[in-house]
Specification:
Elements: H1 2-8, H2 11-21, H3 28-32, H4 62-69, E1 84-91, E2 96-105, E3 110-119, H5 122-135, H6 140-144, H7 148-154
Antiparallel strand pairs: 1-2, 2-3
């Protein structure tokens, strides 16, 4: 009978019936929680709010998206070349694997060509692409001094990435 009355009652009456059917329980836990505006609440799938504390220049993170969408120097060099060095590195925690190859000019000991192949997340691909542009023309000593934190800062990545 109750269901039938709710189904046939007008919309305002059904609101009254449903609110009367649910008693308001004053819980100490409910009173202890601070009132939060609806728009300030985070949903389950919402991104971490710590990303909003990045500098304004990183808000759109154009270099990161640019290197991810259009990676530079992707590919590999011939294994038979004597002036090519190959490095392979992987991150077991997230499954990223990067193969980096450099060609060194024997006359001035600078990196004349760089290629990479990265299998992993978008930040790994963008970082690899950025690195290839950064080291081209550097000496091996200069390239060895590059820190991963510098690349993360330039691409506006969080410190963990």
């Amino acid at each position: 009978m109750f269901r039938r009355a709710v189904a046939t009652a007008p919309a305002q009456a059904s609101k009254l019936l449903t609110s009367a059917a649910r008693p308001q329980i004053a819980s100490p836990l409910r009173r202890a929680t601070p009132a939060v505006a609806v728009n300030a609440r985070r949903s389950y799938h919402e991104k971490d709010k710590s990303l909003h504390s990045l500098p304004v220049a990183c808000a759109a993170s154009t270099p990161l998206l640019d290197h991810y969408n259009r990676p530079r120097n992707v590919g590999s060099m011939s294994k038979a070349d004597t002036d090519v060095g190959t490095g392979l590195v992987g991150a077991p925690a997230c499954g990223d694997v990067m193969k980096l190859q450099i060609r060194v000019d024997p006359n001035n000991n600078t990196i004349s060509d760089v290629k990479f192949k990265t299998f992993g997340c978008g930040s790994a691909i963008a970082s690899s692409s950025y690195l290839t542009e950064l080291v081209r023309g550097m000496t091996l000593e200069q390239a060895a001094r590059i820190k991963n934190t510098e690349i993360a800062k330039e691409l506006c990545l969080p410190p963990v990435k």
